[in-house]
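Students often ask why we bother predicting the structure of a whole assembly rather than each chain alone. The short answer is interfaces. A chain on its own may look different once its partners are present, and contacts between molecules only exist in the joint model. In this exercise we take two input lines together and write out one structure for the complete complex. Read the inputs first and try to guess which parts will touch.
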Amino acid sequence: MLLQLKNIYKWVTQGGRRIFLLNDLNLEVQEGEFISIMGPSGSGKSTLLNVIGMLDGFQEGEYDFLDEPVHAMKEKSRSKLYKEYIGFVFQQYHLIDELTVYENIETPLLYKNVKSSERKALVADMLDRFNIVGKKDLFPSQLSGGQQQLVGIARALVAKPKLILADEPTGNLNSQQSTEIMELFRDLNKEGVTIIQATHSESNASYGTRTIHLLDGMRDRSKE
Amino acid sequence: MFKNHIKIAWRNLRSDPKFSVLNILGLSVGLAITLLLFLFISHERSFDTMYAQKENIQRVLLFTDGDQGEETWTNAPAALAPAIVADIPEVKKASRMYRHNFGGNAFVKAGDEQFIEKDLYWADAELFQIFNVPFLRGNGQKALDKPNAVALSQSRALQYFGTIDIIGKTLNIDNGLELEVTGVYEDLPSNSTLDAAMVGSFKTLNFYKNPSWSNSSFETYIYTVDNTNIDEVVSKIQTTLNKNVVKEDQWYSFGLQPLEEVHLYSGGYLDSYSKRDGDINEVRNLTLLAFLILIIACINYMNLTTARSQKRTKDVGISKTLGASTQSLILRFYTETFLITGIAIALGIVLTIVALPFFNDITSRTIVVAEVLSPTFLFLLLGVWIITTLVAGSYPALHLSKFSPKEIMNPSPARKGAAKLVRKGLVVVQFAASVILIVSVAVMYKQMTFMQTKDLGFNPNQVLAINATVALENKSEDALLNKFKNNPIVQSVSLAQGYPGLGVSGRTLRKNDQDESGTNLQTNHSDAAIVDVLNLKLLAGQPLPRVKQRSDTIVEVLLNKKAVAYLGLSPEEAIGKKINAQLGSNAYIRGVVDDFNFTSLRAPIGAYAFHNRPIGEYKNYLLVRFRESDLSTTLSTFEADFKEIIPGGAFDYSFLDKNTEKLYEAEQRTAQIGLIFSILAIFVACLGLFGLAAFTAEQRDKEIGIRKVLGASVFGITKLLSTDFIKLVGIALIIAFPLAYYVMNNWLQEFAYRISIGWEPFIFTGLCALFVALLTVSLQSIKAALRNPIGALRKE
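Now the answer. The structure tokens for the assembled complex follow.
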């Protein structure tokens, strides 16, 4: 088992009242799964991804990642864990404007203290694989949306994570670009990468091996 | 519309209190400093402008000849004034001024009370005709007509008599002269070069009865008729001189200096009696400093405002789409700047008033609050207000208002880049200016320390100079000397005409009769013990003889090395040689001492002589070298000893090391002002940097978020954000160092004895600037790095 969420509660207090973002949420993810999370805006999709990605905390519940209790960890070991095993893909790509394609892809490796020669090889692999060798010296603003997202995925993959978290990865793309990205995800999944994506689109969700429906921070079992 | 602008400006101020406080604080500190400096500068420039006939008043200057550089004295011989009034029609009036005892103190007895008077002058009756000093009692025009007359300032009258109705009362000076009060004048303003608290009539003095052409100790002011050609007058003075003095005895020539230049343009002139000396260089340096700080403050404002206005570009874009014209937006930004600078100026005035006593203290000026609030100054303030608004507001107003709405709402990278470059440039300028200030102050302090610790060739520590004028009048100087010799705390004691740091008598040393020009020789009438008291190093021969009969016509002379070198002799060769130095025909060299700095370190060492010629100069000072012991007991035993010999005599003393320090008062002052202001300048610069760092952190919010998600540590992010700023500071250092070097190298040229600038001030400043900048920036960076990245990434 890759990760397990048990009775997760997350809330914010507004005007003296608790508003639940995640409400008694349970989830188990096996290695090799491709999970799609669906639900209307505000149902907690992004929050769930952030919690899984350890970017955000929660108030109650337990979270085990590779059988280690994340809820009991200090910030430092948590950050070590996600640096090692998790890659993120965003709807707005979130590339660093000041860096070239090559440098953007290289950044996670820098933070993992990977040696220079190894970095070169890894980045070159990625550029090859996504057919963007010719664009490696361009800046994000010089690329189309689809190309930017390709770079975003390359960046997420370069550190060889076990899990990719994708928050509406095709939300800003046209249908053709969308299809390309989703097919890429499917290929990656076949190679063994676990993927969890949040999406609004049924067709995108259908690429996954399993779909989870959220409503008001709870699993909507009626749809699953 | 305009009301609207003000409303928006006010709301903007309140909506972002942190920025507003930084902005206003920075600006008001900068303005307060500028205001203080302007006050000082205008005070300095206002010197002697209160005299109605100021354009007709000139001071006589005397230029000495000599091989070793010419000197300019502000004193002239007593015979000059009457001679030129008689000979030269343009010179209507002239007045000689003599500070009591060549600058010494007077003991004044009014009724039964004794006072020490530091500011007693003797002057011709014409003094109050040339300088229209308002008289409260008596007639100023005639106050000094008769011998034994004296005029008092209002505050002295009150101090001595408790009233100003004192015409006809008498004062006793130095237990001798009886003077009759003939007038009371209004206290001379603090910006008058003339600083007399009491003026006795010149006719009282022997100098009046027997005016000579050789003793040049009288500051002389002349009154010339309108439209006088000054050059012509100068040449006529030469003619008069030629008439009265044979060519061989003319060791000087004369010049004239307009009154308006007396205060600021007399740097390097010797023997000025007024204690209120100014320095045009100081005024220039401080003017520069004022502008530099104003610029730093304005840049601060620009930086903070543009940084903040990025946030408001959207609002500008909306205004534009709603039909606002560029002009109206410019007006809007200027209104905002005007409001903020207004608040800053008000606060700056408050700060100025609060800081004024302290400022007066370090500048030794007496600037009053009324000067801050005087109409002219308020008018100047209005000018500063408008200029600051125009300068500080220019960038935000012109930069932001010109954009098209589309661009503002969605700025192109090129535009962003340009704006960034300008801001960075401004920070570099700001820091460079601060760095120049710090380096300058560091160099000044290095030079000050050097001067204070330099081996002067004599030892001024543990030496007390006691005014012994009273003893001379009683002929009790030998008794005084013996009394002190027997005091166990006293190591050695000597009677001398003066001491290093105090002017003594100027004479001319000639190699032989053919040597017409000769060199200027400072001569000090003293005794055998002077070598011990001052710790002078005897190179050859012996000190002056211990016993000297008044009838003895042989004069023994102790020369310094410089004087012997002028004669072309080695110290050993010089012993026993006859010397031609206006010390009589029987003067012989008895010993040679090593060179010592008898004047300030600004000037190179000249020729100096101690002699025992009994006629001419009096030995006014008892110089006592005492052993280390509790200072207050030492002083009280000395006072008891002194009073025992001279009952009723006032005990007037000074420490030699303190007197030596006084020589560098102006430099100390500039260094002190510079130090305080450069600390403030760097503070203001840091406010700017702080704002910019906050702004950048905000702008790079998204990038920081991404990097954190990708695994960057807090330290990594802090480093990333700080490096950019450190680079800017680095560039500022590179720009500032050569400039600072150039400026300070020039400043050091004023000193004959100076430090080499060396690398320490630069290293020190560099580290200071980097440390302060790092501290400022990392505060912001760490804050940004600690923020949860999700917030940043969720935006848009």
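Check your guess against this: The first strand of chain B starts at residue 57 and ends at 64.
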